[in-house]
Amino acid sequence: MTRTTPGLAPPSSSFHAAPTIRPHNQDLTDIIQKGAFKTLKKKPKKFAKKFSFWNEDLRISRNKVNRLFKTYIKHKTEGSILEIIQSSGNVYRKERAIYKKLLLSTKRKAWESFCLNHNERFGFLFNLVFNRGSSENFIGVNPNNDPNNTIEGKINYLMDNFFPSPSSEDNLDYTPIIGHVEPMVLEDIEMVINALKGGKAPGLDRIDFRMWRAVFIHDKEFILDLINICFKFNYFPEHLRNAKVFFLLKDGKDPGLCTSYRPVCLLPTLGKIIERLFLLQLNKWLDRNNIIHHNQYGFREGKSCDLAIHDLIETIKIRMPSEHLALVSLDIKSAFNTMNWSVLFKTLESYGFPAFFKNFIYFYLKNRRVFTLTTF
What we know:
It is a single chain. By secondary structure, the protein is mainly α. The protein has two domains: 56-117; 137-371, no CATH class. The chain has twelve helices and three strands. The protein has helices at 21-38, 56-77, 82-117, 124-129, 151-162, 186-194, 209-218, 220-232, 269-289, 305-319, 341-350, 355-365; strands at residues 242-249, 261-266, 369-371. The chain is elongated and about 105 Å long. The mean pLDDT is 82. Residues 229-376 form the Reverse transcriptase domain. Residues 1-20 are annotated as: Disordered. This is Reverse transcriptase domain-containing protein. InterPro entries: DNA/RNA_pol_sf, RT_dom.
C-alpha cells in the first residue's frame, strides 16, 4: 500500500474555495484506484463444473443414424425400386428410435448422478435449475409496443420513469454562504471506518471499502484532513454524486411494467464515508435541539419497525376499553424521488438549521447524475 500510493497528503492551505476540492479528489480517486488494482490479489481460476451426459455409445449410435439417413435419402433421390426405399427407410427410423431412447436414458442417469454427487448448496446446480447462470439480461418493458426497441432504448425508458428530469417547479433558488462547523476528530472517523463492511459492490470508481480502510491505516491524518476540508467548505464533491444504476425485476411481477423493477444505485465508496460522517454531525445537532419527534421510528438509532408495532399494540390495548380507536396508514409512493427541494429547504429554514447543513445538503443534491451500463 505504501509503495503504490506515495505522497498522499497535500497541504490544507492549497484549498481556497469549494471548486478547488474537485480536481484533487478526482486525482486522489485515480491514485487509490491504481493502487487498488496493483495490490489486488487475484483469485485462482476454478474450472466451472458443467453438467455433461455425452458419451461414446451416444456418439456411435448418432453416427449410425446419420449413415442410415444418408442411405435412405440416396435411394429416394436415385429412384431406386420401392421395396429398397421402404426397407432403408424402416431401418433408419428403427435405429433413430433406438438412438432417441438411449439419449433420454443417458441424460436421466447422468443428471441423477450429478445431483447425488453435488454438495455445493447454492452453486452451479442452483444456478442451473433456477436459470441464474444465464448471462442474458432481460428487460421486458416495451415502450409503444415497438418490436424493434433495443436494450438501450428499453433501459432509457426505465431511466426516464425512475429518474425524470426536474421540472421548472423543482428549481431551487438557493445561494450557499459558507457556515461554521466543528472539525471532525480521529475518533469519529475511526468509528465510521471500523464499521465499514468489505465486499460491497463499489460505484463508478470501482474502489471498495477495504481499500479506503487501508488508506486510513496508512495515513490517518490525511483522511482526517480530507474530510475536514470538505466540511470546512460545506461541500460534497461533485464526482462523488454520480451513481451507477441497474434494475432488478421484483419476484412474481410483470416484466412489462416499469413498476415491476427496482433500481439499485451504486455510489462511490468515499462518498458513502463522507455521508456517514455528515450524518454524525446532523444527528448531534438534531438531538441537542430536540427536533425529531419521539414517535419517529424510521432511520433512528435504537428505533425499529418491531418497536413501532409493539408500541402501537400497547397503545391499542390501553385505550380500547374506554375509547374508540381508528388507525390511519399512509404510504407515500416514491417519497424521496418526488420530494420538492424548495419545500425541503424552507422546512430546514423554519427549524433554524445552521448554514453548514443546508449548504452540504444543497451540494449533495445538486447536479446528481446516474449512469447505466448498456453492454449486453
